[in-house]
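Two entries, shown back to back:
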Amino acid sequence: MTGGELGAMVLVDSITRLLPGVLGNEESAVDESHSQVGVLEYPHYTRPAVFEAEGREYKVPEVLLNGNHQEIEEWRKDNSKIKKLPA
């Protein structure tokens, strides 16, 4: 970041993806953080389903592994964060 090139690329990418047609699928950005004012998207998990680090065990919530899309959508909605905005 010393020359600013990486920072500039991050800004260009984050702004460009807001333009219509850039993502290819408009639904791709619907759940992203800040797509709604004051709302942060849900936590994301990847494999393995159980990960151990520094003596702690981290597990992917079972609902995300069960294949029930309706329950997964409800979990995502329930686990999105509402950020309090300054008055």
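entry 2 starts here
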Amino acid sequence: MTAKLAIGDKAPSFKLPTDNDGTLSLKELAGKKVVLYFYPKDDTSGCTQEAIDFNGLKGQFTKAGTEIIGVSPDSGKSHDKFKAKHNLGFTLVSDETKEMLEAYGVWVEKSMYGKKYMGVERTTLLIDGKGKIAQVWNKVKVPGHAKEVLDAAKAL
């Protein structure tokens, strides 16, 4: 298991499938600020609210020169349905192999009702235009989070 990333670390590179049968790499985002938010599963209550919150602020993120990218281990087809259902206007990356999730330190052991399992720890990273991590939010609580990330992006 990879250690958590910290402010000032270089963001690990990736090239993964996205919704709409696309692909996305960190290299393609060079020069832009990027919000990478990691979430456990499409169409669950917390993940849906987080996506809707980020989507509602998309125009302001764009004005701040910041791309929003959602990442989960769900398939591209699952992402397509999730985006269509909630009219999401940003890219969702699919990491079914969990390699990126591990590289970013968000694929962790979790526990529910005493049962241990591996899953995504809800985490958000703000990456600057040079590919360095500018801010990290671990164990994210959804209410108010997207606005907090927007404020950090504006200040960067």
